[in-house]
Design brief:
homodimer; alpha/beta; 434 Repressor (Amino-terminal Domain); Rossmann fold; 3 domains; elongated; DNA-binding
Chain lengths: 346, 346
DNA sequence: CATGATCGTGTAAACGTCAACACGCTCGTT
DNA sequence: AACGAGCGTGTTGACGTTTACACGATCATG
């Protein structure tokens, strides 16, 4: 016994067919579907039976046209395969689902063009709200498109000139803490590999890095700062370049989960031992940091909480909250592990 | 200068407003939007200008109602935070996007109830097609719901009584290969931790495991087989239990990416050294396997290709292909690394 | 120069739903 | 018995599109 899934597209039953089958008018069916109280129990039962029988599901398009809401939230992430964003989605889901909203995730693969395409699709589809992580704060087309949305938008960890609620993560202090610790141990040349300065995390990490050195009265060697892209390949390439340079760093900060992967791989391929040959700090993937040997010090943040907070902000707007944009800042933790030690030659 | 995103819901411009602004009828605007050739170039230009001016995006709900298609594909995955499924989505995307379809991912968190909810939502939203990974083949409600879809559905790596195209991954042979190799090295007690036998991968892995032992003329100790759930916690718990038992295995097969994580963690926490104290084989996360020390032998498959193949099958159906269900089987590779060795006490 | 084909455009119906309104029925009240 | 209130149900426009059809203008043809 097997169930058919006709490619030809079996027509879905409509409210009219349910009405006919139950021997009532479409208005009554609609009231039953909408859980309106104004229906006699006996009628309701008959309608419910007809619905079940026919496998009726109300047509969302028609419903959306009448009610101007779709109970759909769009979730824009730079990269599906990155656990960091997936966890955010998971957190948001836990808040939105109980309210009857469906969260649909869409991955831009860090392409501003695809971000615009997503925003337009979301607008076409009358999505009720959006949670977005942009891949480039300077992409004006994306920002204009957000302005046109007409529904509440929550922005994650970006600084964009848009009147939207934002959930920020703290990056600067944690980098400062880590760099401070490395300086304490005697490191004088520390390499930083992180995201582009076109997004807040990249900018803040570089800023925190510089501040830590300046505070210690040390000069900043720009050669040691690599802040351009967010990918394992980039992390690997820059780490390799740093470690094979004329005057290599004695510690590497791989700030970003993909970069962390790539950088760690580069260190391994060079046959270097952590922390004897090189001190190493990762970010955003506490699991990986704890699985390798020795465990790696990691800058961590609770992404599920980010998702919950973002969903909370959105939900308030969906309920009609009218007030100036709100900003939430969530903290980071430095999970100290055995991957950092005093530099060898010194 | 900042852009507004009114919570109140700025009304979106409609085709009527564009028509008025361009001084033509709505029919003409629709023809321009639909790229029909029957429009004078001068008129087209005027309409296009009006559209751009107003930031017009056609209302997908209204369009869907007329045309019965939404250019939307639903993608159901058991777990967003699992890279394996994310990669499938990525692969599918590369095939579907050029055809104008948008892929929206939804995570069921391995809950059959949420799978049903997703399927109903997809039907309500008139999605044009679905790619689904079910979390339990025995959930009849889910299967019935698939039968009602009325649009093509592609199933990933599950055996369900549904007339749908399927993309399978090969599991049995690769497990046999690995177990054979371990036997060769002298292992006689091998622990298997994998997914529930309610899904094909779990079943096939257990079957492959048994076959390898039987072929070698060895008895199968059911205590060594743990096939119940797919999560890091489960992997950790069962691995711990196996390794602290009265007669522990000398090798562990952690078949499943989350299970791999958890199992590896359990081994670490017990302070065991791979491969001296215990031989270890993982699955589905070649990256992790290569990052830890020593690198871990892993059963790997190309999930992006799975996604591409699934999307290809779906696309054919969307184009109207009418033929019996097709099945594609994709292979697995055993990436041999230094985590397996001859057992110590023997 | 009449005829018909072609072209560009406008008009109107339909898609499936919701909700305002209307209507008839049953009660309780006087 | 008459009346109004309230309840359950049916009817009827919208919502924004697409598309078949209609129509006038232009143009080539005999």
């Amino acid at each position: 016994m097997s169930v058919k899934t006709p490619a030809g597209g079996r027509r879905q039953p409509t409210i009219h067919e349910v009405a006919a089958s139950a021997g009532v008018s479409i208005g009554t069916v609609s009231r039953v579907a909408g859980e309106s109280p104004r229906v006699a129990p006996e009628t309701r039962a008959r309608v419910l039976a007809a619905m079940a029988e026919l496998g009726y599901q109300p047509n969302a398009a028609a419903r959306a046209m009448r009610t101007n809401q779709t109970k759909t939230i769009g979730f824009l992430i730079p990269d599906m395969t990155n656990q960091v964003f997936a966890r955010v989605a998971q957190g948001a889901e836990t808040v939105l689902a109980p309210e009857g909203y469906m969260l649909f995730a869409f991955s831009s693969n860090r392409s501003p063009a695809r971000e615009v395409a997503f925003l337009q699709a979301a607008r076409q589809r009358q999505m009720d709200g959006l949670i977005v992580t942009l891949s480039d704060e300077t992409a004006t087309a994306t920002i204009e498109e957000i302005g046109r949305m007409g529904v509440p938008v929550v922005v994650l960890d970006r600084e964009v000139p848009v009147e939207a609620d934002v959930v920020y993560s703290e990056h600067m202090q944690s980098i400062e803490t880590v760099v401070g610790q490395l300086l304490e141990l005697g490191h004088r040349r520390i390499g930083l590999v992180t995201a582009s300065q076109n997004i807040r995390p990249g900018r803040d990490r570089v800023a925190g890095f510089r501040r830590a050195l300046e505070r210690a009265g040390l000069p900043v060697d720009d050669w040691l700062i690599r802040a351009n892209r967010q990918s394992a390949e980039y992390g690997a390439a820059e780490t390799h370049d740093l470690l094979t340079g004329a005057n290599p760093p004695t510690a590497i900060l791989a700030a970003g989960s993909d970069i962390f992967y790539g950088a760690l791989r580069a260190v391994r391929l060079l046959g270097l031992t952590i922390p004897d040959d090189i001190s190493f700090v990762g970010a955003d993937d506490p699991l990986l940091g704890d699985l390798v040997y020795p465990p790696i010090t990691v800058i961590d943040r609770d992404m599920v909480e980010v998702g919950r907070q973002a969903a909370g902000l959105l939900l308030d707007r969906l309920r009609g909250l009218d007030m100036p944009p709100r900003r939430i800042m969530l903290g980071s933790n430095v999970l100290l592990r055995r991957s950092i030690a005093a530099p060898r030659h010194r």
